[in-house]
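Collaborator request, handled under Task 6.
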Amino acid sequence: METFFVFALNGLSYGLLLFMLSSGLTLIFSMMGVLNFAHTSFYMLGAYFAYALTGSIGFFPALIVAPLLVGALGAAFERYCVRKVHPYGHVPELLVTFGLSYVVLEVVRLIWGPANVDYRVPEALSGSLFTLANIEGQGLSWFTGAGDAAICAAVGNSCTQFPMYRGFMALVALAMLVALWLLLTRTRIGLIIQAALTHPEMTQSLGHNVPRVMMGVFGGGCALAGLAGVIGGNAFVTEPNMAASVGAIIFVVVVVGGMGSLAGAFLASILIGLIQTFAVVIDVSAVSVMEQLGSPISFEHWAYPILKISVSQMAPILPYLLLVLILIFRPKGLLGTREE
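C-alpha cells returned to the collaborator:
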C-alpha cells in the first residue's frame, strides 16, 4: 500500500513537470497558432543556464534568472525570425523552429560538450520529504523528520520514502498553474492577450501593440519551458539529448489534451505521468495471466512472442498508443476545440 501511494505521488509529480513543459507550447499554439518544434530546446537551455548560474549565484536565484533569460531569447526569436515567416503560413513557421532546434543542440554541444553535466539537486532539497511505513499492528503510518532512517531500519522492506525534491517540483508546477490562470483570467494583461487573440484589429485600434503582445506570449511560453528545464534538469539528466528525449512525449500531451487547451494539457500530463510511472512496475503479460487462470500458453504457440510481452516492457510506447486511440476516436483531444 505504501509503495502504491508513493508511486502515485511520483506519477503526479512527473505529470506536473510534463504540464510545466507542455503549458508553454499550448499557450503559444492557442494564442498564435504556431506549433513550436524548438520548444524542448528552450527546456534544455533552461537546464544548462541553471547549471551555469547555480555555481555563482545559487540554485534558487537561478530558478528565477534562468527562465527569464530563456524567455528573452524566445521573444527575440519570435521578433526576428517567426514574425518574418508568419505571413507565408504554417509550414515556414514549422521549418524555422525545426531549424532552431538543431542550432541550439549544436551550440550546447560546443559550449558544454557532448557529455552530461554535473547539475545536481541542491542540498537544501535533498533527502526525503516523508516516509510511509507499514508497521505491524498499526497499519500504514506517516513519518517526517530525522527519525525516518531509524524507522526504515526497523521495518525493512515495509518502508518507502518520498524525495523532497519531487514535492518541490510538484509545488512549483502547481504555483505556475495558479499564476498562469490568474494572469489570463484576472488581470488586464490577460484581457489584452485574449482580445488580441480573438479581435486583433479592434485591439490594435484601441492602442495596443498586437505584435508586441504576441512576442510577449511567445517569450512567456519559452520561459515556462525554461522553468521546467531548471526543475527537471537536476531531477533527471542534463545533457544535449535531453530535448529529444522529451520532445515526442510533449507533443503527445498537447495532442491528447487537445490542441490549444491548457486544461486538456493538464489532464493529459497527469494521465500520462501516472501511466508511465505505474506501467514500469507492472510485470504482467498475457502469458502470465493465462498461467494464473490455468490455461498456459505453449512456447511453440505462434503468438507466444507477442503474448509474453509484459506491461513494463510496453511502458515506453503506452503514451503513443494512447495518442493513436485519441486521434482515431476523438481527434479534438480530451478537452480540445480545434480540429487541426
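The cover message to the collaborator said: "The longest helix spans residues 2-32. The longest strand covers residues 128-135. Please let us know whether this matches your experimental observations."
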